[in-house]
Amino acid sequence: MLGATGPRRLPTISNCDPRSVTPVGFMTLQKGCSWPWLDVEILDWKTKKQLCFLDKVEPHATIREIRLMFHKSYPQWYPARQSIRLKPKGKALRDEEILQNLPVGTTATLYFKDLGPQIGWTMVFLIEYAGPLFIYFLFYFRMPFVYGLDERFTSRPHPVVNLACICHSFHYIKRLIETVFVHRFSHGTMPLRNIVKNCLYYWGFAAWLAYYINHPLYTPPSYGQKQINIAVIMFLLCEAGNFSIHVALSDLRRDGSKIRKIPYPTKNPFTWLFFFVSCPNYTYEVGTWISFTVMTQCVPVALFTLLCFIQMTIWAKDKHCTYLREFKDYPSLRMPIIPFLL
């Protein structure tokens, strides 16, 4: 066993042993083993030491079932923590992949990497999105410890400040609702260590934006109410479009399947952007923050919008390449995030 002192027999599980616990997908034969079984050895990806040997595994077993077998030998490494791969530095195998379809012989050699403590994506999004919602209010209500008690800071805020608070709150409340009722995640968990980085990004920018938008010395947009009205209309349209795309993507996995499918436009006009881009949810998201920038005419909001666009472009390109790689009949007209351009 990895890290143990002194000789110790490696865990071996035999499906021909009637005393063994056999999960779904594995077979135990009481009267000999005539089935074309496979043996599976699992090595540490870094040291190449053997951690576990699974004796006589059914060829139709999935990687998910291999994870469960491995978990019985090492309870501290629950399936979500396991990265099982064919090569030490290769790509992690998907849960639904079948053992006999992999390029392995009668003894399959797999490599294990510990991904560390995990946290569910639903909880990740709830934490990330709830923070900005409440942090913004600390600045909107002009708490004394934020702006001080100067007499100049007791005046009522400009109407656009109230409108910005409503729009910002609406955006994150929508995200929370989508997290609970709409989103279906292809990956169940994320490394716990990443939650700190993600929260610093969302929470930090929320505080930075809120500080300047709600500052008592804040000046309203240059073109007045007309500029604000156009921005609000654009904001609402983009929010509706973003929500519509998320619902359409969720419907692709209504049966609980994690198999990737090509998303197509529906009768909802907001989904027609699928004719031109692979990730219209990112297109609408960027549009939301552009409209918020126009509405507030605030430099920190513009910088945040620029960073959002860069990050979402990277995500969109990755997803677009994945679609092209997995589907030969993928629509050729589509671009990653901006129609006809990018």
Largest sheet: 5 strands, mixed
Uncertain segments of ≥5 residues (pLDDT<50)? Answer: 1-9, 13-34
Q: What portion of residues is helical? A: 40-55%
Count of distinct structural domains: 2
Order of helices and strands: EEEHEEEHHHEHHHH
**Strand order within the widest beta sheet:** 1-3-2-5-4
Terminal CA distance reads 50 Å
Q: List the quaternary state of the chains.
A: single chain
**Which structural class fits the helix and strand makeup?**
alpha/beta
Give the SSE layout.
Layout: E1 12-14, E2 38-44, E3 50-57, H1 63-73, E4 82-85, E5 107-114, E6 118-120, H2 121-140, H3 144-147, H4 159-181, E7 189-191, H5 194-213, H6 224-251, H7 280-296, H8 299-326
Tell me what the structure shows.
The strands form two sheets. Strands 1-3-2-5-4 form a five-stranded mixed beta sheet, covered by helices on one side. Residues 1-9 and 13-34 have low confidence and may be disordered. The chain has two domains: 38-116, Ubiquitin-like (UB roll); 120-326, no CATH class. A hairpin with a 5-residue loop joins strand 2 and strand 3 (50-57). The chain is an alpha/beta fold. The chain starts with 11 loop residues before the first strand and ends in a 16-residue tail after the last helix. It is 44% helix and 11% strand.
